[in-house]
Design brief:
By secondary structure, the protein is α+β, with helices and mostly antiparallel strands. The chain has 10 helices and 21 strands. It is globular.
């Protein structure tokens, strides 16, 4: 069993290569794990454990079995860049492309063309890029084709690269499409990323704070308010971090906000008053989109802290610096870490040197003020 471990306080954070997943173990569980990972049988491990920890053979076997089963039941994390790739796919069985489902965008001076086989796929990607749409006759610098079949989604880039995803993983398919867009914009490849995180990112003077939370916890609303207060938006939903320098790269998509937040945000973004509500087809939720308030330029930023917010009407205000281990699973649950030893080692060193904070609030004004103070202390 191939693994990487990092000692953090009294615990060990262990990455399992076969599953691309992380687990946290303490003694004696880590000792038992290393015995099993290094090829010892359960009987040999039980004998060693019994002699060193003064428990019966039966108790040792129960303890070992629990650890083994917990590892066995972990589902493999194969998100984003782990998608199946192939050199050729027969597209004749997919819906035909239509000219009215083709869009062109100007991003950082580059012309990007997207063609969709149906409106469901277009609604997955286009609303976030609509503010970048152009009417141009010139040939695009790159052409993305998105197809939907009965049970799979296909991304074709120009005429030489194909990527396949199950329909049930549409949210990850969208993430893969955006990651390939970033690859083109910055001249990078999948191997250049340490990981990509389901988070928002805002920056000041090229120093960034990641805002990590599940959908519905308020991260996009906070991002919009912080942008309104003068911070720069790097990304609203997908934050890629490079492996070489652990830099994050701007994704020039709009900020998606739920209808419930639109009324409050319209004081800062008047265009929301007449904005069209759209169904986010990858999440099944209605959203409106805010074009970035300040011009996004292709400059990288360095992450200086990670924030885990939760809007809660029953809480006045709570702000706490937290132990990184306690939020590790929250951070990586919907994220992708490149499944190789170098990237994992880099991620662990990167994540555990960053300060992490939990925020629970019912006043957006107080939350924004506290985050502004955080930037002042970076």
């Amino acid at each position: 069993m191939q693994y990487i471990s990092k000692k953090v306080g009294d615990s060990r954070v262990v990455w399992l290569k076969s599953k691309n997943r992380f687990i946290v173990l303490q003694k004696p569980a880590f000792d038992v794990f290393t015995c099993l990972a290094n090829g010892r049988s359960e009987e040999e491990t039980a004998k060693w454990f019994s002699e060193n920890y003064y428990v019966s053979r039966e108790e040792a076997l129960v303890f070992i079995y629990d650890i083994y089963e917990n590892i066995k039941q972990l589902k493999a994390n194969n998100l984003l860049a782990e998608y199946p790739k192939t050199n050729n796919i027969d597209l004749s069985r997919f819906e035909s492309l239509h000219s009215n489902l083709t869009k062109k965008y100007l991003v950082f001076g580059k012309r990007i063309q997207f063609s969709y086989s149906n409106s469901w796929l277009m609604d997955m990607v286009h609303p976030g890029l609509a503010h970048l749409e152009i009417n141009a006759e010139e040939i695009a610098d790159v052409h993305f084709f998105l197809f939907q079949g009965a049970d799979e989604l296909i991304l074709k880039i120009n005429n030489d690269r194909f990527f396949r995803w199950p329909v049930k993983n549409s949210e990850y398919f969208k993430g893969s499409v955006l990651l390939q867009l970033l690859n083109f914009l910055y001249g990078l490849n999948d191997k250049d990323w340490m990981g990509a995180f389901h988070a928002a990112a805002v920056s000041k003077n090229n120093q960034a704070v990641l805002i990590s939370a599940p959908s519905g916890f308020g991260k996009s609303t906070l991002s919009a308010l912080l942008v309104a207060k003068g911070l720069n938006l790097i990304s609203d939903d997908l934050v890629p971090v490079s492996r070489k320098h652990q830099q994050i790269f701007p994704l020039p998509a709009g900020i998606s906000v739920k209808p419930g937040a639109s009324e409050m945000l319209s004081a800062y973004f008047p265009e929301l008053k007449n904005a069209k509500t759209r169904l986010n087809t990858s999440t099944g939720k209605d959203v409106t989109y805010i074009a970035p308030a300040s011009k996004i330029v292709p400059k990288t930023a360095t992450v200086k802290a990670i924030l885990f917010p939760e809007f809660n009407k029953n809480v006045d205000f709570e702000w706490n610096k937290v132990d990184n281990i306690s939020v590790l699973n929250d951070f990586i649950t919907e994220s992708w870490i490149a499944g190789n030893e170098n990237s994992v080692s880099t991620f662990l060193d990167w994540f555990f040197q960053l300060p992490c904070y939990r925020l629970r609030y019912n006043s957006s004004e107080m939350a924004v003020q506290k985050i502004q103070e955080l930037f002042g202390s970076l």
